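quick one
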Amino acid sequence: MFQTMGGNPRNFNKLDLYSLPSPCFVIDKKALQDNLEILYELKEDTNVKILLALKAFSTFSLAPLISNYLDGCCSSGLYETRLAKKYFKGEISTFSPAYKTDEFNEIAQKSNHIIFNSLNQMNDFYDVAKKFNNEIGIRINPLYSEVVNEKYSAASLNSRLGIHLEDLKNIDYKKLSGIHFHTLCEQNFKPLENTWNHIRKTIIPLSKELKWINLGGGHHITRKDYQINKLKKFLKQISYETSSQIYIEPGEAVVLDAGILVGEIIDYFKPNNKFSSEMAITDISATSHIPDVIEAPYRPALLNEPKTGHRVQLGGPSCLAGDNIGVYNFNLPPKIGQRIALLDQAHYTMVKTNFFNGVRMPSIAIWDSRTNDLNIIKEFSYEDFENKLS
Ligand SMILES: Cc1ncc(COP(=O)(O)O)c(C=O)c1O
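structure w/ pyridoxal-5'-phosphate:
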């Protein structure tokens, strides 16, 4: 079980959890803005371009704020590209493991960079991408990764993502504007430097032909212990060495610790067996609302959790036996109706929710911890559940 790397409560202990519908995702504008300011300063100091990875966070109501700070979006296919074009300002860089013919025209029309995952796809779609004035990139697999969780390691020998360095020689470099790689997951600076050292001998000679190098996402830049000064030095150095525009496309780092998921205790009981834990059923479902808890798996941090106390297993309202969130300490046995909040729930959550079991989808709220202004920007109904089916 992986521990979450986030979990800084920021100002969320000032929020009245009972003023919200339940369940509800809440984004603190101030926390988001603080993250964006760190990223903006990085841009100013190093000339790096920063794109928001929509796969992590696509809450477009915040697009005007985000677009004030970042250079655009990175998208994974047609729908994210459309969303980026409709709501966000700036550049759109699209990478998909494989493009479909019937979607590619629109993707190419709306994107600025098209990044291919294979030579096949580059050959098939190059002319259309060029027709719409895209700059063409290829994703490489550096075959170097320090990601511990195999599921998130995109640079293993059998990863389907990116061409191997030796295959670069089969490309007509004149067709290429950029190189893309993505090997990090919630990492500090050093693994990025190590990855670069692993590929620099191949990339630097080739970079004379390139306009840009995209270092992907997974940089945990807005985390307190992130070595940002080392990153700044590194970005300046590689942009000098390669004479290329450097891009990064973080998702998590943009909204790290900027959102929570508020829920309610619906039932609490203790089986009559000394080996069983105390249990509470909540209206937060791991499988429907925060599937990474099961998929990663990881244990999200709980707002104001004491160090010791009643050990209570929190679980969701679905029928899945494994719909468990984790075991948490409570000062007192939880009461029915009591509100709880899971921390660091802005990224890879709202983009992944589903209606399994007809479980009610969390509302979405934007809160400003400076003013206590609260806006419920989205509520889901039975009709949303029905409309998804037929
Ligand atoms: C190609 C690519 N870019 C960017 C990201 C964003 O990564 P993160 O949210 O960890 O910063 C991902 C995440 O999987 C990715 O696959």
